[in-house]
């Protein structure tokens, strides 16, 4: 019964979305404020209905209701509770339901928090938002309905792919989707502005927090995926330039650019046309990410929907919204008035440079991801574009971006003083050079560009600190004054500095671990010891062990450093009961210096086991950097100035319909 | 500077970045991509020795021989032709005889493929799409039967 | 009934919510000056920052001037737009109102097309409470599983469940269950043989080292077990020892009775044919084997069944054209046999699956219908056939 209630709620949600798409839009055309006012309750209703639908599906999963085809296909009665819940979105149908739920959540948030938006803008925004919801709900009901039933029900389910049974991956899709879908708000605002044919700095002020929120979630979602790949896939790599990873990375790059260009638009009323275009492109890239993953046209572990009909449907959705958005842009962009002027060397100028480099980098990733598909469909040749391509294209574009990054926030609006900025960065620059020399001296081995990369990361980190130091005039004014200024500094300034600091950390981690990783592949017998990166690793032997829904062979390792035991590592080879698939669990000892990473391989006929040991220097900096960026976003978002609308007005709490868990 | 000049500078920078990017992309696309071939592609048109490429197909039944240490010998087949492969390292979890596999590496003089990476990425059918497509193009049909019996979707 | 009441409540709430604004009195547009409010807000910020010394005096002045310029421009536009919302379109509004009220009706119509309101939910825990007479086969399996999760030391439970798993085609679980039963109850010829069969099926017909050990053990327990000898010989063949395997087949044939006799004869014919054809198409073995055993989930419930897997091995050794022909022959043979004697449920299931594997869905459908009419009085068999239809996505 619960399942059928969810099914009905989904159908009703589709109808409400259609209503929300048509009525407010018509209302804004004829100037009827009551029709426009329909948008708010409709958006909130849509959220309520989809929450109910999602809740019902979750109940079906938690109670292992095997009369639901989707539950049978992706769950099993012995699965631990957390994976029964995460199983809801660990499959195609459920994940699409989550997609529209998050879409509705953002729409309802605009309805609830956007009390101060001009009525016609708000009606149009919610109408565009609803049109996206309609497309995806049709997609669910027509091709991927999670509520289909089986009669009679089978005894038990097929289980969830074991590599998806993992805490980080359990929450990777919700964050990723919150990011993808969050950009739909920027898109809806952009299209609404184009419909109205006018746009101003206030528009940017409304768009920026939504973009920031989406960006935060996407950052964390990508980081989680990367972290998961690092410890679960057993290769010790953290980024594979896999098409599916790229699919989430492209919206991130474009979204980062959008975040910065919206800043210029808000503060200086400039770059309007560009910002609108970027908003459309960012969401289009999100849709493309969905298409690439959902259509299964790519080689990837994520491709759990290999179904041409679905692929064509998502392709149609993508073409409709990308094409529609760009067509609107072509028709109306000339109506948008150009705003403030600025010198090339200025805060605006630096943000434009940021945008140019980020979008170009995004384009190179785009080409690298889609070139194999294009080539195959044109000539039939099958190629793979791997890490070397991206190292050659993406890497060089990031270097000027990172070099320029610390300068940006130190330049004034309109006309900046680059020499002054350079003076303020002197200390950071000197320390970075010292770090470069030190790295070179300690490592004494290639790749020779690596010390420069590390120094670049350090420069970005210190540059972020320099900015705060300069803003509070530490050293210029008495210490007490400086502290007072520090307290008064707007939170968004901390947010900026923190985010840039996070970028620096990430760069340091990426360069150090890529350049100085150590790897050993060998056969070990119990009692043998090997050494890597200053650790003595002793193999104690293997033992069988039984988990809740798997059995595993665990290898015991003791890692010593300077004679003292620092860690006990237990890499394992697991076979899940249902579906019976093997997975490799790496044994990881995490430290500031880096991670010791041990993988258990095949048993050798001559006795002993194949063992892979890696030392990944400073690899934690990569994810810590991403977490710092996420926190930076939250700090910025908490700034009163970034909150939507004018101050002093009572704001209603989010609609009672909370998202289902 | 006039407004026009200012805009000129911005556009100039944009164009310059774009040119650099295009140059990099063209360079990288020429040097950094690897082609994918099946064993029968190799039989038709041999690849020159030392050229990196990806070899995909099924792991031939009964061909896996573990050698000294972490060295593994096996053969990749597309049911028409078979190529012997040597790989040094730990094989992925889902590497099994009769399952789809992609290996990357070079041919040696003896006609053996020296792989430095082995991927057994899989979708629900235990079959990398590239391999599935290539096999289907060769007339090898992958119907329901190609699925693992435990994993037949209801 | 409860379901429909819930539907009605849900629909009513939705209609009430989305049509309410249409009926409400038109309030003065609260957002008319909201954009201006944003500018005022920004002006105030500049003032605070200046006061706190975060913004220089001249910078603050410049920013103020620019904001003021934008503010004036906006208010001009806002004045021009005044009266924009004055138009009243009551007819259209009425139409929209009707549309909103009609949403539940359309919703029910669509829902009836896609939903299954008549089906009750069957949560796993709830299945444990269904009376035995009403329980389906899978309910009972679930119940035994639940019992064994609580009492994993109950060897008899595993012993009962293991052959059921094997018949259901859940080979890996069957392997596990046989293994546990053997550990807890001690080896018995039946269990050891079951374990070996399950393992062979789980590994797509490959006689691996554990299988070999199991059959060696079976021979210790029951020296007359022909099954063990035949499979061990097939294992030798798979290992490449064709000569040894052939000799062994011949030796066994001397004393063999059906079904083993047929298996051995075809095996030997096959080897002869293969020697002539040369060692072609060996690479296809694994896939075809899997194809065959994928269509063979009905499994060897009795000693005769391994023949199917032996067939798979034979077929693997043929070239593609011969192979297709051989499979077609097999299927035809099976169909003919079932036409004469329709009481073999496993045979029917195998036939349906084979048709699906061969892509002949219409034939599969027809076979399913025939099977159903043969078992019209057997509830258990009908349930199994329905499950099969579901698994293969054949309409029922």
TrEMBL record, chain B:
The keyword Heme applies. GO terms for molecular function: heme binding; metal ion binding. It is a single-pass type II membrane protein. One of its GO terms (biological process) is cytochrome complex assembly. The chain crosses the membrane at residues 9-29. The keyword S-adenosyl-L-methionine does not apply. Keywords: Cell membrane, Cytochrome c-type biogenesis, Heme, Iron, Membrane, Metal-binding, Signal-anchor, Transmembrane, Transmembrane helix. One of its GO terms (cellular component) is plasma membrane. Residues 29-154 are extracellular. Gene3D superfamilies: Nucleic acid-binding proteins. It is found in: Cell inner membrane; Cell membrane. Belongs to the CcmE/CycJ family. Heme chaperone required for the biogenesis of c-type cytochromes. Transiently binds heme delivered by CcmC and transfers the heme to apo-cytochromes in a process facilitated by CcmF and CcmH. This is Cytochrome c-type biogenesis protein CcmE. It comes from Hyphomicrobium sulfonivorans. The gene is ccmE.
């Amino acid at each position: 019964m619960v399942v059928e209630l969810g099914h009905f709620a989904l159908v009703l949600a589709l109808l409400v979305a259609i209503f929300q798409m048509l009525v407010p839009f018509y209302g804004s055309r004829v100037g009827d404020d009551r029709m426009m006012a329909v948008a708010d309750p409709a958006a909130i209703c849509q959220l309520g209905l989809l929450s109910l639908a999602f809740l019902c599906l979750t109940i079906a999963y938690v109670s292992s209701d095997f009369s639901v085809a989707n539950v049978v296909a992706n769950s099993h009665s012995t699965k631990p509770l957390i994976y029964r819940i995460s199983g809801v979105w660990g499959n195609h149908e459920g994940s699409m339901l989550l997609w529209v739920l998050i879409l509705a959540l953002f729409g309802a948030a605009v309805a609830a928090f956007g009390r101060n938006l001009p009525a016609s803008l708000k009606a149009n925004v919610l109408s565009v938002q609803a049109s996206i919801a309609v497309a995806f709900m049709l997609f669910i009901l027509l091709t991927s309905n999670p509520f289909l039933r089986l009669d009679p029900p089978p005894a038990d389910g097929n289980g969830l792919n074991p590599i998806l049974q993992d805490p980080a991956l359990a929450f990777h899709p919700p964050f990723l989707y919150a990011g993808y879908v969050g950009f739909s708000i920027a898109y809806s605002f952009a299209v609404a502005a184009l419909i109205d044919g006018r746009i101003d700095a206030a528009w940017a002020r409304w768009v920026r927090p939504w973009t920031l929120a989406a960006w935060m979630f996407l950052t964390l979602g990508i980081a989680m995926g990367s972290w998961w790949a690092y410890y679960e896939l057993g290769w010790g790599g953290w980024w594979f330039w896999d098409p599916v990873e790229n699919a989430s990375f492209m919206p991130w790059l474009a979204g980062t650019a959008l975040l910065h260009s919206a800043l210029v638009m808000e503060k200086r009323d400039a770059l309007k046309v560009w910002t609108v275009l970027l908003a459309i492109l960012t969401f289009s890239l999100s849709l493309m990410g969905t298409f690439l993953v959902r259509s299964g046209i790519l080689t990837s572990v994520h491709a759990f929907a290999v179904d041409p009909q679905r692929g064509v449907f998502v392709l149609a959705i993508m073409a409709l919204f990308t094409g529609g958005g760009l067509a609107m842009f072509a028709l109306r962009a000339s109506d948008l008035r150009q705003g403030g002027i600025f010198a090339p060397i200025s805060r605006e100028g630096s943000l434009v440079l940021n945008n140019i480099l980020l979008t170009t980098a995004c384009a190179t990733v785009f080409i690298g991801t889609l070139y194999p598909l294009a080539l195959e469909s044109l000539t039939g040749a099958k190629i793979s574009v791997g890490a070397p391509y991206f190292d050659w294209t993406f890497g060089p574009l990031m270097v000027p971006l990172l070099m320029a990054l610390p300068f940006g926030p130190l330049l004034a609006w309109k006309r900046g003083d680059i020499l002054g900025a350079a003076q303020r960065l002197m200390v950071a620059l000197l320390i970075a050079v010292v770090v470069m020399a030190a790295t070179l001296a300690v490592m004494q081995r290639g790749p020779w560009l690596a010390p420069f990369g590390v120094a670049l990361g350090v420069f970005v980190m210190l540059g972020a600190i320099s900015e705060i130091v300069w803003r509070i005039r530490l050293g210029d004014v008495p210490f007490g004054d400086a502290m007072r200024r520090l307290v008064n500094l707007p939170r968004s300034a901390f947010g900026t500095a923190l985010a840039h600091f996070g970028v620096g950390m990430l760069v340091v981690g990426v360069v150090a671990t890529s350049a100085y990783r150590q790897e050993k592949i060998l056969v070990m017998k119990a009692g043998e010891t090997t050494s890597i990166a200053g650790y003595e690793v002793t193999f104690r032997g293997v033992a069988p062990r039984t988990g809740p829904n798997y059995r595993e062979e665990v290898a015991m390792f003791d890692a010593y450093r300077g004679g003292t035991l620092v860690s006990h590592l237990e890499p394992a080879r697991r076979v899940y009961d249902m579906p019976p698939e093997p997975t490799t669990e790496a044994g990881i000892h995490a430290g500031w210096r880096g991670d010791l990473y041990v993988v258990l391989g095949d048993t050798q006929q001559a006795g002993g086991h194949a063992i892979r040991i890696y030392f990944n220097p400073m690899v934690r900096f990569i994810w810590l950097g991403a977490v710092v960026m996420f926190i930076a976003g939250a700090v910025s978002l908490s700034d009163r100035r970034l909150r939507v609308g004018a101050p002093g007005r009572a704001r209603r709490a989010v609609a009672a319909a909370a998202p289902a868990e | 500077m006039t407004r026009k000049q200012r805009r000129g500078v911005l556009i100039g920078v944009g164009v310059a970045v774009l040119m650099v990017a295009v140059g990099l992309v063209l360079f990288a696309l020429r040097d950094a991509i690897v082609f994918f071939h099946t064993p029968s592609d190799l039989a038709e048109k041999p690849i020159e020795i030392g050229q990196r490429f990806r070899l995909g197909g099924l792991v031939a039944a009964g061909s896996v021989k573990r050698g000294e240490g972490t060295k593994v010998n096996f053969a990749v087949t597309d049911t028409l032709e078979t190529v012997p492969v040597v790989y040094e390292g730990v094989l992925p979890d889902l590497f099994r005889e009769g399952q789809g596999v992609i290996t990357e590496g070079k041919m040696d003089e003896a006609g053996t493929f020296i792989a430095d990476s082995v991927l057994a990425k899989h979708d629900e059918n235990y079959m990398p799409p590239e391999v599935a497509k290539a096999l289907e193009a060769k007339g090898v049909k992958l119907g329901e039967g190609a699925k693992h019996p435990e994993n037949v979707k209801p | 009934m409860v379901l429909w009441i819930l539907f009605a409540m849900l629909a009513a709430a939705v209609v009430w919510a989305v049509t309410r604004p249409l009926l409400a009195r038109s309030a003065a547009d609260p957002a008319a000056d909201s954009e201006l409010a944003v500018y005022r807000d920004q002006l105030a910020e500049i003032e605070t920052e200046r006061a706190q010394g975060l913004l220089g005096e001249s910078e603050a002045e410049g920013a103020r001037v620019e904001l003021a310029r934008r503010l004036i421009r906006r208010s001009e536009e806002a004045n021009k737009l005044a009266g924009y919302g004055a138009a009243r379109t009551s007819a259209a509004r009425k139409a929209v109102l009707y549309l909103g009220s009609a949403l539940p009706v359309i919703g029910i119509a669509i829902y009836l097309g896609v939903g299954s309101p008549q089906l009750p939910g069957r949560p796993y825990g709830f299945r444990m409470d269904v009376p035995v007479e009403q329980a389906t086969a899978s309910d009972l399996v679930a119940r035994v599983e639940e019992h064994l999760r609580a009492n994993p030391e109950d060897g008899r439970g595993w012993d009962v469940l293991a052959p059921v798993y094997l018949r259901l085609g859940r080979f890996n679980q069957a392997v596990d269950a046989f293994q546990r039963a053997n550990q807890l109850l001690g080896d018995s010829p039946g269990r050891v043989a079951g374990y070996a069969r399950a393992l062979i099926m789980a590994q797509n017909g490959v006689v691996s080292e554990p299988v070999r050990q199991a059959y060696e053990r079976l021979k210790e327990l029951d020296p007359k077990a022909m099954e063990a000898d035949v499979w061990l010989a097939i294992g030798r063949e798979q290992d490449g020892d064709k000569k040894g395997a052939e000799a062994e087949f011949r030796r066994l044939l001397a004393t063999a009775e059906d079904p083993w006799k047929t298996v051995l004869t075809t095996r030997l014919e096959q080897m002869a044919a293969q020697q002539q054809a040369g060692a072609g198409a060996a690479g296809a073995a694994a896939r075809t084997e899997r194809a065959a055993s994928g269509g063979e989930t009905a499994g060897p419930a009795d000693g005769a069944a391994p023949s199917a897997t032996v067939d798979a091995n034979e077929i693997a050794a043929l070239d593609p054209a011969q192979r297709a022909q051989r499979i077609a022959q097999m299927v035809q043979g099976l169909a003919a046999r079932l036409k004469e004697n329709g009481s073999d449920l496993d045979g029917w299931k195998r036939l349906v699956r084979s048709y699906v594997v061969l892509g002949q869905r219409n034939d599969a459908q027809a076979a399913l219908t025939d099977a159903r009419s043969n078992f019209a009085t057997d509830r258990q068999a009908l349930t199994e056939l329905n499950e099969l239809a579901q698994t293969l996505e054949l309409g029922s």
